[in-house]
Amino acid sequence: MLRSSSIPANFLASLFAVTVLLLAGAASSFAQRATPSPTPERQPQVDKNQKNFTADQIVESAIFIYGTRPLLAQIRRNGVERGRVCKPTCEMPGKTEEATYERRFVRGENSEKDKVRVDQKMPSLEYSLIYGDGRLWGIINGASFTPRQDAANTFLSQNRHSIENLLRYKEEGSTLALIGKDKQKGLDLYVIEMVGKDKQKTRYFISSRTLHVVWLEYEDGAGSSPVKFRRSFHDYRYAQGTLVPFRTVLLQDGQQTQETRILNVTYGIKLDDSLFKSPEA
Q1: Does residue 45 sit in helix, strand or coil?
Q2: Does 3 map to a domain?
Q3: Could you tell me the residue range of the domain that residue 103 belongs to?
């Protein structure tokens, strides 16, 4: 028999928070079926009848659902991900730009100390983008090069505005705020805004029923008309006990510009440090 004294207090607290949030989401879902659904609001609306969970409670519960903090830190410390990138969509063969990719990473104390290498292969071009020691560079035909600004921005944004950064918000020194509740396409959502140490903002729309991140939003670019991005997450599956979206769709100012599909992912693989070194070092 498992004794309560053998269970860590923080585990019990996380389990209780997850249970409360999921029960609240289930009750909300039942209420939607019992009464006509109101017209979805475009802006997040606070539901005064909903129990007032804090942003930290919601995100900590989501972390529990994604695999628990200790498991995520242990299992997803390093790994290899392989898949396809299509522009604008993988549903239009022959009418889209498509590439295969292999992403290898070693997680540091925070994202600034992470090491990431993405090898991308297109029909007429192969190259690598590497992030390490706080800087980004590329390799093509065995020689290093400086990536174009748009390519660098895309690469860095994928890491800065991500589910992974939300799951590591404490390590990142980021702050969380509960903007309110939103309802879109029949989904009840918590809207969480995360502000990083660099003042970059990301809004996460989290299902109140499953605690999955359904999509995130952010703005990029200087000036009076910044570009608005939305990255949505689909086809959630478990990989080595942790939750992973195997399909991601990126929209730019409302237009789909990219779709990424993971073919396979393996965590816990030892990676040689030379993978993340410049050939000119």
Answers
A1: strand
A2: no
A3: 72-276
For the chain, list the strands marked E by DSSP.
78-87, 97-106, 115-122, 125-132, 135-140, 143-145, 175-184, 187-195, 201-207, 213-220, 227-239, 242-252, 255-267
pLDDT reported for residue 40? 39
Q: Strand 115-122 to strand 143-145: parallel, antiparallel, or no bridges (unpaired)?
A: unpaired
In a domain, 48, yes or no: no
Can you read off the two tokens belonging to residue 133?
A: 């020691």
Q: What is the pLDDT of residue 3?
A: 41
Asked if 239 and 265 count as a contact pair (C-beta separation under 8 A), the reply is yes
Q: What is the CATH number of the domain that holds 119?
A: 2.50.20.10
Phi-psi category of residue 94: left, alpha or beta, with phi > 0 → left and psi -120 to 50 → alpha: left
Residue-wise pLDDT for 215-238, tens only, equals 999 998 766 688 999 999 999 999
The parts of the chain modelled with pLDDT lower than 50 are 1-9, 11-13, 23, 26-49
